[in-house]
Design a protein that fits this description.
Length: about 550
């Protein structure tokens, strides 16, 4: 039960969901407005059961390409950051340009990106990922270096980087900050249910929440409500509350539609021709100790002119489950990952699946690899374990040096905004049914950009690609390997009108004056980037926008 102090209080801001977006928005707003009262509501609780009613009421129609909700999201303070890898990536300019291939699905504008950039320093502080510099050309001592010998920058670039957080587990990291903030109240174990109807000015006065243990309904009063419950739950709440749109001629047609993630996997390796010791295959360290890493990307002009989707490709290890890699260290780590109990402690389900692909195979050959490469088979994993689990600034991942200068290539590609990819309520009006598929455009773009990378590397004498599949096998191979549902965007997309989107440029739900959505579901395009860092920037921006709005009233 909530206290009488909470149930009878009129809060200035009520935030639903305590993942990274909810925590950042709550702390940023509370700190900037010490005389305002903020309420942060979380569904999960400490010591919660392994199953919950929200995830149990999600139906995935395509389990081949979409993770189960228990593999993709988390409940409790900190939300999905509890199993987040820590990769911080910025969206690119091309993601804000309405290209032909997007079928008018890009409903935000480049000026929004330019505005967002001013909030990146505060965002980077929350994520503890170092300076928010994502292009090494802005760093004099690194701008002239390259990923491998003879690489030439042009339509393919190696200067865009991903940065890495501690990784920040927001629940653990910010629990004390939340508790110590005098004007911020945190309650857990409550499900957001029903909003009151907007009045003539579009103001919504109350939100009904349900105690997940007692099932008792309580009402929360606030001047402003923010849905920061993740894409699935923020979308489900809006779908379940059609009265919010009564001031409009109809419910926004895009609500729940245009669901996107990323097409991801490996179909080729790169063979570099230069000195293996000069290849930047792994992590680089910034002056503050934070990690960052290069990736191949393609120029905006090239993508637009060739009608292709934004894609990042980075150096990776061979497939762990295939003992043909002949690496004792990789075989040791693969066997550890598929070992019950131990494997679950080493990595969350979705990341574990990306390594093992759910396969248990070649066990004798893996043991032979380990034996043949002793003592390195044990020393290398031990060193990685210390850096990854015992240091405060943890090693974000595992990338092993190749004496042959040969590396697998991991692609991470944008999807077309497709109305058939959607979230909708089932007949019971409670179950969230998720329809998700890969389009031909998604797959063809991945293949064409691999060919582009191959031609570019060959032209400079830097290297070449070796495909793992015959040309005619590539489309089906990509369909069979790509699995997302972790990066959820598009279902409450931002647009200039309710005819095209669900929220406006300030994340205000169309038809209301005081309900906002702070979730990656507002992103109209998925780009090549993981959405978490940009969402953090939107959370900072929303806190500042609401502060200015209050000052002007």
């Amino acid at each position: 039960m909530i206290s009488e102090q909470v149930s009878k209080h009129l809060f200035d801001v009520c935030i639903i969901g305590s993942g990274p977006a909810g925590i950042i928005c709550a702390l940023e707003y509370a700190r900037k407005n010490p005389n305002h009262q903020v309420l942060l509501i979380e569904y999960g609780i400490k010591g919660q059961a392994s199953k919950n009613s929200l995830d149990d009421r999600i139906e995935i129609k395509n389990s081949l390409n979409h993770h189960d909700p228990y593999e993709a999201t988390n409940k409790g303070l900190g939300g999905t950051s509890a199993t987040w890898g820590g990769r911080c990536v910025m969206y690119d300019e091309v993601d804000f340009i309405d290209r032909t291939i997007l079928n008018e699905g890009c409903t935000w504008h480049i000026d929004l990106l330019n505005e967002i950039n001013q909030y990146l320093p505060q965002t980077a502080d929350y994520f503890e990922c170092g300076k928010p510099i994502f292009n090494l050309k802005e760093v004099p001592q690194l701008g002239e270096k390259h990923i491998a010998e003879n690489f030439v920058d042009g339509i393919v670039t190696d200067s865009i980087v991903e940065r890495w957080s501690m990784p920040t587990r927001f629940g653990e990291r910010y629990a004390k900050d939340i508790a110590d903030q005098p004007n911020l109240t945190f309650i857990e174990g409550f499900e957001a249910r029903d909003f009151s109807s907007p009045d003539n000015l579009g103001n919504v006065s109350t939100l009904s929440i349900r105690d997940i243990k007692t099932k008792k309904i309580e009402k929360i009063k606030a001047h402003t409500f923010i849905l920061a419950a993740g894409a699935q739950e923020s979308t489900r709440i809006l779908l379940r509350n059609p009265q919010l749109f009564k001031k409009l001629s109809d419910i926004p047609s895009s609500l729940g539609k245009y669901y996107q993630g990323h097409v991801s996997g490996k179909i080729a390796s790169v063979q570099f021709k230069g000195d293996p010791k000069k290849t930047e295959y792994g992590f680089l360290r910034d002056t503050d100790g934070s990690y960052f890493r290069r990736r191949f990307q393609f120029s905006s002009e090239f993508l637009i002119n060739n009608n292709l989707l934004n894609t990042a490709i980075w150096l990776d290890n061979p497939l762990y489950f295939d003992p043909k890699h002949r690496s004792g260290a990789m075989s040791f780590m693969y066997l550890a990952m598929i070992t019950p109990i131990i494997g679950k402690k080493l990595a969350p389900p979705a990341i574990s699946h990306s390594i093992t692909k759910g396969k248990v195979t070649g066990i004798p050959q893996h043991f032979w690899n380990i034996f043949r490469k002793l003592p390195g088979s044990l020393v290398i994993p031990a060193s990685i374990f210390v850096k990854r689990y015992l240091f405060k600034r943890k090693l974000p991942g595992v990338f092993l040096f190749s004496p042959q200068n040969r590396y697998a290539l991991h692609f991470h590609a944008e999807q077309v905004p497709d109305a058939e990819n959607r979230m909708e309520l089932g007949q019971d009006k409670e179950t969230l049914v998720i329809h998700y598929k890969l389009t031909d455009e998604d797959i063809n773009s991945v293949i064409k950009l691999h060919h582009t990378l191959d031609e570019w590397l060959r032209s400079s004498g830097c290297g070449e690609l070796n495909y793992w599949y015959d040309k005619e096998e590539l489309p089906n191979a990509i369909r069979g390997m790509s699995k997302d549902g972790i990066h959820q965007v598009g279902t409450t997309r931002l647009a200039d009108s309710p005819e095209k989107g669900v929220v406006d440029q300030n994340l205000n739900v169309w038809g209301t004056s005081n309900i906002f959505v702070c979730s990656s579901s507002v992103f109209p395009t998925s780009g090549q980037a993981n959405p978490t860092f940009l969402l953090g920037a939107f959370a900072v921006r929303l806190a500042h926008y609401l502060t200015r709005k209050n000052e002007n009233n």
